[in-house]
Specification:
Blueprint lengths: L6 H4 L7 H14 L10 H4 L2 H6 L6 H17 L5 H9 L11 H8 L9 H26 L27 H29 L4 H28 L2 E4 L2 E4 L3 H5 L7 H13 L4 H9 L7 H4 L9 H4 L5
Antiparallel strand pairs: 1-2
């Protein structure tokens, strides 16, 4: 897992031959994405496009992450033609294909769209052609990608992956996912804001105002999560990671444990208020089911129970 050639020199070399890239991709396709550090082909980690996108080209794990990002970006950008769908299945781009064997993925890939290939024909003739096509895309990327110069600022790594917008992302599920993650980060920011205020003046009006805002954000987030559960199941993809939707509030830092009745009540309140903050807070203050939430809207209580977000269907 060491570095055989300095990163500064590797990015300047010409792309490897298509045959070599194809052979390296055959190694990747056996298990699919994401590529793990113990089976990342060194040839692919030395590609100019991988090195240039890496936060630290001299760090092995940074290059592995960059390779995963590059492969996923290329595959998602191919569109929805049969060839593109088959490649995405073979390389396990979608969560539904991850963890499956190559044999299972081949069965799915040979039947996409209008395809109905014989299994042997697909494995011997179609799959090699598809992998070679992807090798050409990698080769082209290495030729076209402009290496980072000394005048360009280094990229800044953020928490999680920050995916680009592709045509395949323009759908209702992706829109809802984006709104959920926006609320997760909004909740985290407000929890941090409240904690900072408490450090200076625990009993100030600003602390109570922040607690109100936290509860309002949580109610909106629960509503979006409920919408997602109703339509798409209980797992959410973010970059290369999967999260159970019931754990997203805990991920942001919220620690209060809702009862199912409280979860339903605040979702009804947010719906009745049209997500207006003032109207929502007025409604919740009148509730008999949610008496303690204003005091609990902080960082020290427990996480929501499984039944309160992940399995509500009311």
């Amino acid at each position: 897992m060491g570095i055989s050639v300095s990163a500064a020199h590797r990015g300047d070399v010409a792309p490897p031959p298509i045959e070599n890239l194809t052979a390296a991709l055959r190694v990747v396709v056996r298990k699919g994405l994401p590529v793990t550090p113990d089976r990342a082909p060194e040839l692919l980690l030395e590609l100019r496009g991988v090195l240039a996108r890496a936060i630290d080209g001299g760090d092995y794990l940074s290059r592995v992450k960059s390779l995963n990002t590059l492969l996923q970006t290329l595959l998602l950008a191919l569109g929805e033609a049969e060839e593109a769908q088959a490649l995405k299945i073979l390389f396990a781009v979608r969560p539904a294909d991850r963890g499956t064997t190559l044999t299972v993925r081949r069965e799915r890939a040979r039947m996409v769209g209008a395809w109905d290939y014989d299994a042997t024909h697909f494995r011997r003739h179609i799959e090699p052609r598809l992998i070679r096509d992807l090798a050409w895309f990698l080769h082209e990327d290495s030729q076209n990608y402009t290496p980072r110069t000394k005048y360009a600022p280094d990229p800044i790594e953020i928490s999680g992956d920050s995916p680009s917008l592709h045509p395949s992302d323009v759908n209702e599920q992706e829109e809802l996912l984006s709104r959920i993650w926006a609320l997760v980060y909004e909740l985290r920011a407000e929890l941090i804001h409240k904690a900072r205020l408490e450090a200076d003046a625990p009993a100030s009006a600003e602390v109570h105002e922040a607690a109100d805002t936290i509860l309002w954000i949580v109610a909106r987030l629960l509503t979006r999560i409920h919408e997602y559960l109703e339509s798409y199941g209980d797992r959410i993809l973010h970059g290369e990671a999967e999260y159970r939707v019931e754990g997203l509030i805990r991920l942001a830092g919220w620690r209060y444990e809702f009862t199912p009745e409280q979860a339903v009540e605040i979702r009804l309140a947010i719906a009745a208020s049209g997500e207006n903050r003032v109207a929502f807070l007025a409604t919740v203050r009148k509730s008999r089911v949610v008496p303690m939430l204003f005091n609990a809207a902080g960082t020290t209580a427990r996480a929501p129970r499984r039944g309160s977000t992940g399995h509500l269907r009311a």
